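Input record (one chain):
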Amino acid sequence: MDFQYAIFDMDGTLLDSIPYWNRLALDYLAELGAVGPEDLNDRMSSMSIQEAAVFLKKEFRLSKTAEVICRELCGRIEKNYAEDIQLKPGAASYLERLKKKGVRMCVATASSAELGRTALERNKVLPYFDFLLDCGMAGSGKTSPDVYFMAAGRFGAEPSACAVIEDASFALKTAREAGFWTIGIYESSELSPDTAKEYSSQYVMSFEEL
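The corresponding structure, as predicted from the sequence alone:
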């Protein structure tokens, strides 16, 4: 399909940031004297960072407000985005190819758009994107299509004219059922690759295949 607009997920799709997120909540809880289960990330995988903060407060009876927890989680990982996190292989070349074809692009992330801005800028790909959105702006995580509809609306486009590029099966399912063209990118931490393939209009192991 020749699409006019591309909506990119950030973590695990554009940025190789998943290893940094995998220990974030567990290490945060440990510093507060709480012990989180090893499957904590699996349980939180579909949540925005704002939803994760609410979940952690309730689940572990933390005395801090959800707003403070969210701010501290963002603060802990901000340094990684500013200094460490790199692009996924082939991402920059794919963005350049889309730009040459006249495709307009944006980012729609479940984490913080501003958190990722520094990594995208440091990796010299920020200028490819018209705008950055996150699920906090849309008011729901990616089990809802709100952030994708918000992106399409900003473009002034119908969902059918937009490709959503994601690594997570639940997000691909959400976008596909909402009428978007979907491109699934393999991520080694993905729990349901078969489901990801099922809800991908196109499924690849890396950007080099696109």
